[in-house]
């Protein structure tokens, strides 16, 4: 049990609230505009234009490692990355393209779904986010022939169309895809799998939380530091907003670690595979927008006590002070259900005045804007996703 600065036991950290299921409405009734068969996508010419007098350089091929510890099976890792035609495809750093090159790890990643998940036999429920050139897709497609891949890079889609002509592809940004529309088109809940780009891993995870009503399970790779944050417990250094949100809306498990040399190009850090079970977690019994505001205000000043970090929010809601047990606590000391209880307490005690000004504000400004009555909506369409890329 965490203690506050004066030595008193903090009762809020162990508080557990009864979670109830809330009815969720479909976010959008718009037709699925980007779901199409890959044969309908034009194959782009892949030859790069050569500079005058200088022949195009051939990209380095991924090195095969003899180490067996990465896969944990005792077998020699083999590179299953499809051939990158010389001078035709170079991974883009701007898209965070690091492809898995160890077949044993890819097999373990594809086997992370339980056999009793209850999905469709043909695998129509499987969605791969960020398919790239298809290193993981090849293994998934053999097991789930009706799966769908999401990819933003037209060069990668062209390569997929050559190697897997029967694969369905959504040519779009994974953060902009309407997963409810995908679920309606397929007639079932979704299983999400993917090797996530490091630079938008958290944004993708928050996006999946917003669409949790149509996603049963997600198995994804993440930077090792992010994977540790997802499963971190209160009072641990890695405990963060990501820890609280994913532990409230899903049941996260850290499955195994992937060494950096199992990717091409080789990144500077290791990765981890995380499984998120959304269907087994009940929705928190509080307004999601109020909870989001509490978490952001608290963790943006994670070294400060609640009486300081939440002062601005308390003034907006015309609440003189927090409960005594909370005032001297810091964000990393409060358990996820404690944040639900705190958000619920603010809902009951605070004054939510009219509709807050939202339009034309950057997300950081919107985060500090006064909470209006719309913040009490139990099932808003957008909570954890960002309006634009790169916002925090």
Automatic annotation (TrEMBL):
Region: Disordered, residue numbers: 1-97
Biased composition (Basic residues): 48-60
GO MF annotations, alphabetized: RNA binding; rRNA (adenine-N6,N6-)-dimethyltransferase activity
TM region(s), chain numbering: none
Domain Ribosomal RNA adenine methylase transferase N-terminal: 105-280
Domain of life: Eukaryota
Top-rank EC class of the record's enzyme: transferase
Alphabetical UniProt keywords: Methyltransferase, RNA-binding, rRNA processing, S-adenosyl-L-methionine, Transferase
Positions that bind S-adenosyl-L-methionine: 98, 100, 130, 151, 173, 195
E.C. no: 2.1.1.-
Keyword S-adenosyl-L-methionine: yes
Annotated family: Belongs to the class I-like SAM-binding methyltransferase superfamily. rRNA adenine N(6)-methyltransferase family.
Name of the protein this chain belongs to: rRNA adenine N(6)-methyltransferase
